[in-house]
Design goal:
The complex is a heterodimer.
Chain A (H helix, E strand, L loop, with lengths): L5 H14 L2 H21 L8 H20 L2 H25 L1 E2 L5 E5 L2 E3 L1 H19 L8 H20 L3 H17 L4 H22 L2 H11 L8 H15 L10 H4 L11 H34 L3 H25 L17 H19 L12
Antiparallel strand pairs in A: 1-2, 2-3
Helix pairs in contact in A: 2-3, 2-12, 3-14, 4-5, 4-6, 5-6, 5-7, 5-13, 5-14, 6-7, 7-13, 10-12, 12-13, 12-14, 13-14
Chain B lengths: L2 H39 L1 H12 E6 L6 E2 L5 E14 H4 L2 H9 L6 H13 L5 E5 L4 H10 L6 E10 L7 H4 L2 E3 L2 H6 L11 E3 L2 H5 L1 H5 L3 E7 L5 E8 L7 E2 L4 H11 L5 E7 L5 E7 L13 H9 L8 H4 L9 H11 L7 E4 L2 E4 L2 E4 L7 E4 H6 L3 H11 L1 H11 L20 H7 L3 H4 L3 H7 L10 H12 L17 H11 L7 H16 L18 E7 L6 H6 L14 E8 L6 E7 L5 H20 L2 H4 L4 H5 L2 H9 L1
Parallel strand pairs in B: 2-10
Antiparallel strand pairs in B: 1-8, 2-3, 3-4, 3-5, 6-7, 8-9, 11-12, 11-19, 13-16, 14-15, 17-18, 18-19
Classes of the chains: A mainly alpha, B alpha+beta.
Chain lengths: 380, 644
């Protein structure tokens, strides 16, 4: 393998293209296409300012995904800690030198791109935890001592993201880490213990951990009528958009709530309202079906993958994606407070799409380990 | 890593993954259930809400009807004007915008405070009117400064304008913003529009519903901030109906000019057959245009506290003792009841004694033996003291009511006063104190010369004169003609419309004859103010009504001349008349408050205005092809035969 000639290299590239999960790629394209349509509508039937930009970004993200998928898993295995470290540095940089956008997330300007370190961290965390649990002997997972390093790997970035303050991403980080802990075999009672501890800490978090606007959002969520023209307005108007869409919707470009600006953030967090108002329940269920397909591909590959690293990465990415989607949908449907999580692959925004598709690429890449004997993660 | 461990790890992973997938399935199921709830179960409700969000029905302000005089002169019009409005949402700092605006247009402190109040009260995207009636220069200045004044716009609108100003103040009244109470009493949705103006006084008030028209509606699509996106539909309203007054502005102006030298008073001229009021002048007046932008509190206080009562329409709201102008009425009551005939005479020694009370005649020394004709011609008081006493108050009141004294004339103006025609029953009801409830004979005596409790409005006196002159028909005054330019058509319709009051023709002729003597025979109280023009002579009656009581002591000292009294204690001067003599058409009443003698002060005003009126309308009746016989049924026609 160290003595590969050029011809072998070329066949290797072709062979690796064959390893890309094309079913998953196609599903992702479907989801992104739904996004284009909705962004076109949200702009009042214009490609600008959103749909065209989103298409460009999707092209880049697609390339990143495919290239990522073609890179051998052992490279990712090796890079895991580095990526985590880099993400933490980026979070720190954003904390001290970043630009605040929209009152919540922070991003770093990289030339023409805006990079949200918290998005990158979601993937890096999955990667680093998967690597950690891959390397730990299974019987050692039971020891509490074993859980200290991964907890640190979680708490450091989670604290930084919470401080931004980005409650939505913090919740996703903790939830995804919990899922990886769970899949790695951490015992039930430890989760129960953490659950009790969190419940006990809620009053403290309420008092010290949350910003005033976050508290207000939570209160407004519990009773939207308390603030019908302020924060409650978002929730109420989104619900009206959804409800008035009915089963078949008002038709493409005919959503009144959307086009008369009653729904705020309709191109980002509340884009579901555009879909549901113009395409109705049928459209919303269609998107859910595409999401189901993507999840199916990710989790199926997690089941197939033989290495612990591989399946933890695939399952971790899958659940990150699921949490994104669930939190956003539940928020727009009025089941969760407004926390500022985009609808994955559909909402306008580059970083979340790029990192998510980079994650999909990772999942494809690591799925190879175990399929072929010549792709050991470590060289021992 | 041992195989067994690997297998266990594998199995655990798979088991737990499947478990998580189950949880995830449940979560998705929850989302779908929620979608079903919103988009299927509750869809109808949300659809309604979305429509309510989107569609706004606005009322369109109709243009208010105009008011014309009988010759089509515009007396009240809706004039286009430019005003400054502000959309607070776009303006940002309202205070600062107002500061800046004050440099361009005139802004009083009250106006600024009003704007700030309005801005707080209303939704921030709704325009608030700051000031109106911009001059062209101001409009231009606003345009130039527009970039510095975000959210401040010049807007075109309509304001009420009264081109004749003070000449029509009491007739036409004015419009003003709707009060809360008016809104409660009137369900018309137009009243909810902040720019809507409602009639507050005069004809603007009486005919408000006709003038205001019907609001159209405009269905517009609005966006989340309330701004209009496009019009979805429009239902045109109807502009208000125009109103055609019976008033002749030229005569109205002449009347006001004639009476203005006196401090306060009223002139009424009406057509005795149709009831058309040609002149209704009350002085002093006010400029109704002052009320349109909103009256300054100082101006309002000044108008309200003015002792001359500029806000009062004296023609219908001023109540005066009719004095000697009441004598024809008493005489007619006497003739009708048979208490007297034309030749019944009384001796006037200059004073009439009733018990211990002395009732004086205006003429010291008295008139000697007088019968009806001379009693009216020379205005002998004692004759009427005797006659009144013979008749009793209730019989006088019966005739008075027929002639319109003490009852509403039915004029189409708000705030008409009824005057007082006392009767025994009236006095019992009017006074609380038992001692005051009884009717005294002395009270009948002074009622005989139109003093005491008797009160009448100038319009009532004009109506009385008209009914005496038109052959005893119950003509009712009116200010608005049913048909525009209705002098011709209105004439015929009206003559037939009024019912007869049932007076004997011969009696009316006697009264007419006596009134003719007043102004046309030497010795008549108004002989010196007669109309000399052939065919336009008037018949009239003077009146001087006391506002103070002349005590016996004062009489002994010699009565103080009116000129030497303080203004408000001087007598009211009155004069009623009709003209021409043969075919009477116009009746007139003049009152000059505290003017002194009726013959000297009031009669010249009546002469001037009756002459002008006849000159303006001479021959119109014939030209219009009117039935002259109908007109000649009036008392003047018989006079020619009688003197033959």
């Amino acid at each position: 393998m160290r003595t590969m000639n050029l011809a072998e290299e070329r066949t290797s590239v072709l062979r690796r293209l064959g390893l890309v999960n094309w079913g998953l790629t196609l599903s992702v394209c479907f989801a992104a296409a739904v996004g284009f349509v909705l962004l076109y509508s949200a702009a009042g039937g214009e490609f600008f300012p959103w749909a065209a930009a989103q298409m460009g970004r999707f092209g880049v993200a697609l390339l990143v995904m495919i290239v990522t998928a073609m890179i051998p898993p052992r490279i990712w295995y090796r890079l895991a800690y580095w990526m985590w470290g880099l993400s933490v540095l980026l979070l720190l940089a954003a904390e001290f030198g970043g630009v605040e956008g929209g009152g919540a997330e922070r991003w770093i300007a990289l030339g023409p791109f805006r990079l949200q370190p918290s998005e990158v961290m979601k993937i890096a965390l999955v990667l680093v935890l998967a690597r950690y649990f891959h390397a730990v002997r299974f019987e050692h997972v039971r020891r509490i001592r074993t859980l200290v390093p991964p907890l640190l790997l979680l708490v450091i970035p989670a604290a930084l993201v919470l401080k931004q303050p980005d409650l939505g991403t913090t919740v996703i980080l903790i939830a995804v880490a919990g899922i990886i802990f769970f899949l790695s075999g951490v015992r039930w009672w430890k989760f129960a213990l953490v659950g009790v501890a969190v419940a006990a800490a809620v009053p403290l978090i309420w008092t010290y951990g949350l910003q005033t606007y976050q508290k207000k959002r939570l209160l407004t969520f519990l009773d939207p009528s308390s603030d019908p023209l302020g924060a409650g307005f978002h929730i109420t108007q989104a619900k009206i958009a959804l409800g008035s869409g009915g089963v078949f919707g008002k038709g493409f470009l005919n959503g009144t709530q959307i086009h008369l600006n009653f729904v705020p953030e309709m191109h980002t967090d509340f884009i579901l309202a555009v879909l549901a108002e113009e395409f109705g329940l049928v459209g919303a269920l269609g998107l859910l079906a595409i999401y189901g397909l993507i999840l199916f591909h990710l989790l199926a590959s997690a089941m197939r993958t033989k290495t612990q690293f591989g399946r933890l990465v695939a399952a971790g990415i899958g659940f990150t994606f699921f949490l994104y989607a669930f939190i956003n949908l539940a928020m727009v449907l009025g089941l969760l407070p407004v926390v500022g999580v985009p609808l994955p692959l559909v909402s306008y925004g580059g970083t979340s799409m790029l990192t998510l598709m980079f994650g999909f690429g990772l999942a494809m890449s690591v799925a190879q380990a175990g399929d072929t004997a010549d792709e050991p993660l470590t060289e021992d | 890593m041992p195989i067994s461990e690997n297998i266990e790890q594998n199995r655990k992973f798979t088991r737990r993954l499947v478990l998580l997938m189950g949880v995830k399935g449940l979560a998705l199921g929850g989302l779908i259930a929620r979608m079903y709830q919103l988009q299927v179960s509750d869809s109808e409700r949300y659809t309604t809400l979305a429509e309510e969000n989107r569609i706004n029905t606005r009322l369109l302000l109709p243009i208010r009807g105009q008011i014309y005089d009988r010759h089509g002169r515009r007396v009240a019009v809706d004039k286009e004007d430019y005003r400054v409005v502000m959309v607070a949402e776009k303006t940002g700092n309202v205070q600062r915008a107002l500061d800046r605006l004050a440099g361009i247009v005139e802004l009083s402190r009250e106006q600024r405070e009003k704007v700030l109040r309005e801005v707080r009260r209303r939704r921030r995207f709704l325009p608030v009117t700051i000031t109106g009636n911009l001059t062209w220069e101001e409009v231009a200045q606003m345009e130039v400064n527009a970039p510095d004044l975000p959210g401040v716009l010049t807007e075109r609108g309509y304001t009420r304008l009264y081109p004749y100003g003070e000449l029509v103040s009491h007739l036409v009244g004015y419009v003003g913003p709707v009060t809360e109470r008016e809104q409660k009493d009137d369900p018309d949705r137009l009243l909810k529009i902040p720019e809507f103006r409602i009639g507050k006084q005069g004809l603007e008030k009486t005919y408000d519903r006709r003038l205001r028209g019907r609001g159209g509606t405009q269905r517009v699509e609005i966006n989340a901030s309330g701004r209009v996106q496009r019009e979805l539909g429009r239902k045109e309203g109807r502009p208000g109906d125009d109103i055609h007054m019976t008033i002749d502005m030229e005569l109205q102006q002449a009347a006001l000019e004639a009476i203005r030298p006196h401090r306060a008073g009223s002139v009424v001229v009406m057509d005795i057959h149709t009831g058309d009021v040609l002149v209704m002048a009350s002085t002093p007046g006010y400029d109704p245009n002052l009320f349109i932008p909103g009256l300054r509190p100082k101006t309002w206080r000044a108008l309200q506290t003015n002792r001359l009562g500029p806000l009062l329409n004296k023609s219908v709201s001023g109540q005066y003792a009719p004095g000697s102008t009441f004598k024809m009425l008493v005489a007619l009551a006497g003739l009708e009841s048979g208490a007297i005939n034309a030749d019944s005479g009384f001796i006037c020694p200059g004073v009439f004694q009733l018990g211990r009370a002395n009732f004086h005649c205006w003429k010291e020394g008295g008139h000697g033996h007088v019968a009806l004709r001379d009693a009216i011609k020379q205005s002998c008081d004692v004759y009427f003291y005797e006659l009144a006493l013979r008749l009793g108050i209730d019989r006088i009141a019966e005739t008075a009511r027929k002639l319109g004294i003490g009852v509403p004339t039915g004029i189409d103006l708000p705030a008409e006063k009824l005057g007082i025609m006392p009767t025994k029953a009236w006095k019992r009801g009017y006074f609380r104190d038992k001692r005051n409830k009884a009717w005294f004979r002395g009270e009948t005596v002074i009622a005989g010369i139109g003093q005491g409790y008797v009160l009448a409005t100038p319009l009532q006196l004009a109506v009385m004169t008209a009914r005496l002159a038109n052959g005893g028909y119950a003509v009712t005054p009116r200010l608005v003609a049913e048909q525009p330019a209705g002098f011709r058509t209105g004439y015929r319709q009206a003559s037939a419309k009024f019912r007869s009051l049932g007076f004997r023709e011969a009696n009316l002729k006697l009264i007419a004859d006596a009134m003719t003597a007043v102004t046309n025979e030497a010795g008549g109280t108004a002989f010196w103010t007669r109309i000399a023009e052939k065919g336009m002579e008037m018949a009239g009656k003077t009146g001087t009504s006391q506002v103070r009581r002349i005590t016996a002591a004062e009489r002994a000292r010699g009565i103080v001349k009116n000129e030497d009294l303080p203004w408000h204690r001087r007598d009211h001067a009155l004069f009623v008349a009709y003209a021409p003599l043969d075919t009477p058409r116009f009746a007139c009443s003049v009152i000059v408050e505290h003017g002194g003698g009726g013959s000297r002060v009031a009669a010249p005003v009546a002469r001037e205005i009756l002459l002008k009126t006849q000159k303006r309308y001479s021959g119109t009746a014939e030209r219009a092809g009117l039935d002259l016989d109908l007109l000649r049924r009036g008392p003047g026609a018989l006079r020619g035969r009688r003197t033959r």
